Each structure stands twice: as structure tokens, then as C-alpha cells.
Amino acid sequence: MTTHKITLIPGDGIGPEVSGAVVKIVETAGAATRVKFEWHTHNAGAEAFEKTGEYIPKALYESIEATRVALKGPVTTPVGGGFTSINVTLRQKFELFANFRPVKSLPGLKTKYPDIDLIIVRENMEDLYAGLEHVVVPGVVQALKIITEKGSTRIAQFAFDYARKHGRRKVHSIHKANIMKLSDGLFLRCCRAVAEGFPEILYAEHIVDNACMQLVMNPYQYDILLTENLYGDIISDLCSAFVGGLGLVPGANLGTECAIFEAVHGSAPDIAGKNLANPTALLQSAVLMLHHINEGPTAEKIQTALEQVYREGKTLTKDVGGTSGTKEFADAVIAAMG
Predict the structure, then answer these.
(1) Side-chain-facing half-sphere of 39: CA atoms under 13 Å
(2) Residue 209: other Cβ atoms inside 10 A
(3) Of 126, 130, 149, 118, which Cα lies nearest the Cα of 211?
(4) Which tens digit of pLDDT belongs to each residue from 229-269?
(5) Hey, what CATH topology would domain 117-241 get?
(6) Which of 176, 301, 319, 331 is catalytic?
(7) What are the residue boundaries of the Isopropylmalate dehydrogenase-like domain, all occurrences included (predicted)?
């Protein structure tokens, strides 16, 4: 039996509930496929600060350095003040340069856009999210947009490599180079240079505001969207609405040494502890994690069961039109695994 050591960050709000449900499902699938998981649990954010005096405890950093893979529940990020985003800090610390967000319809779930299958590949460390901002004079704040040749080339290479490996047909670079001619212009030049090495993949470019309109009018014209950090953050949330919202879509932050898989929705403190949260987003993130650690059969076992539960529609959570709770949904997925 193979054993994998994984750092678990339960998160706050609904985080402990959805992460608990996902761990139970993953362990059940692992038992059936002779895979064992050793969870190293650490928290981050306000709760961690109360206990350790650090928003990201040293022990958490050390755990990720040791395991090289983490599964992370939602952590609250204060708006307009408070501590720095835990997500951004972890991405920068471990140089998780690629944010990978597949958006795919679940069977049986009725939405305005059926049969969606999109991939958003977002540069994860630069742009405005580099966090370089300061007060120039009272009432004036300057934020610096950072785009580098290294970062742009690296994320473009990731997108095209993924497209070739998985048989995706086209890549659109999303930009605002008509206005930001130097920064977004550099990003586009790097994307074009990489695209030349993949002649079998159709390459195109859309200005970000037009891309948002095009997505709403006809999302089926896209396959992989390759973006800078801020544009990708916005577009990936927009695309999640095509399949039912952020409670359903997975996310991965990938680097050369480490990877963190996370639910991209918020911590929803208003429903915390009420057995109402939908664990689908974190569960599908765990599926991505299992593929990453080369446990494909375990991943497919979970994905097949999850899709069966949605196809039957009998044990869904309230956010997708059902009446079941977090625990009941998790039990249904486990039952569907046989």
C-alpha cells in the first residue's frame, strides 16, 4: 500500500466542515485502491494568529516544504485592511506560478450554459498581486503592475504544454495591450513566442473586456484562456457561474517544487457549523491533487461517484437546489463508490 503525506489546511468558516467531508471521501477511495494518506494538519489566518501569534505559522511552512503538496480549505481575507491574503502569501513563498482552474459542467445540474469545458491558466505571482503599493501623499495610493519576461514565458509554456498533453485545441491570451502597451505588450510577445513551438494548437488573443462579453455571449468559442494574474482572477470567477458557481469549481496552485490545491470560494461564516456547505469545490480540488501525485485510479473513483450523485440529484446541497447537508452529501458520494 502506498502512503502519501499531505499538508491539510482546514481553513475557517465552513472550511473545517468541507475539509472534513473531503478527507473522509478521499480516505474511503484510497482504502479501495490501496492508497493511504497521512494528513499533517495546520491552520492559517485569524484562528492561527490567536493560537500562535502568526497568520501563517512556521510549522505550516515547514510542513509544506516537507510534504510538497497541500489541500487547503477557504480562509477569510479581510477587505481593505487586516492581514495580507494567506493565498497570495503562500503562492509567493513557494513560487506557485501557475493557477490552474478547470471549469466543467456536472451532469444533471441544469444551468444556462450546458456542457461547459474550459480551462483558465493564470499567472499566479506577478501583476498587481505582487502587492507593491504605497501611499504617495495622503489621498493618493500607487500600486505597481509587475510583468516579467520570465513569468510570462513560464506561464505560457505551462498552458501550451498542458494543451498538447491533454489534446486541447486552442489557447486564447487575454490582455489589455491596447492600453498597457509595455506590460501587457510584453506578456503577449512572450505568449506569441511560445505559441510558435506548438503549431498544432490554434493561438488567438482577446482584449480582456471583449473577452468577458464574448464569454457571456458564447463561452463555447474558448478552450484554454491564458491570462495575467488580475484578469485571470476575475475571469475564472465569471466562468464558474456557467456551471453553478464557486461552490463547484476546483483550483490548483502549481510550482516546480510544491503544489497547493484549494477551494476558491469564500469561508461563508454565516452558514458555518450548520451542515449546509457544499464540499464539491474542495472535493474536485482533491481530485486534481490525486492526479498530481499520480493516483489516477483513486481520483477517477471519486470523480465518477461525485458525478453519479449529481446525475441522480437526490442528495444535493441547498446551493444547487437540493435539501441535503454537508455530511449527507459526503455519505452519498461514499456510497456511490460502492
Answers:
(1) 16
(2) 13
(3) 118
(4) 999 999 999 999 999 999 999 999 999 999 999 998 988 99
(5) Isopropylmalate Dehydrogenase (3.40.718)
(6) 176
(7) 5-333
The reply to whether 117-241 shares the fold of 1-103+246-338 is yes
Q: Is 176 a catalytic residue?
A: yes
Our answer to whether residue 233 is catalytic in this structure is yes
Element (H, E) at 252: strand 250-254
Domain boundaries, the chain: 1-103+246-338, 117-241
pLDDT in tens, 150-188: 999 999 999 999 999 999 999 999 999 999 999 999 999
Q: Taking Cα atoms as reference points, which of 224, 205, 255, 207 lies closest to residue 91?
A: 255
| Catalytic residue, candidates 110, 209, 274, 314 | 209
Q: Name, in order, each residue with C-beta under 8 angstroms of 331's C-beta and a sequence gap of 6 or more.
A: 315
CA distance 225 to 206: 10
Amino acid at site 299: A
Can you say how many angstroms the Cα of residue 333 is from the centroid of all Cα atoms in its chain?
21
CA distance 189 to 187: 6
Backbone angles phi, psi at 330, to 5 degrees: -60, -40
> The domain 1-103+246-338 belongs to what CATH superfamily?
Isopropylmalate Dehydrogenase (3.40.718.10)
Segment 31-58, tens digit of pLDDT: 999 999 999 999 988 778 888 888 899 9
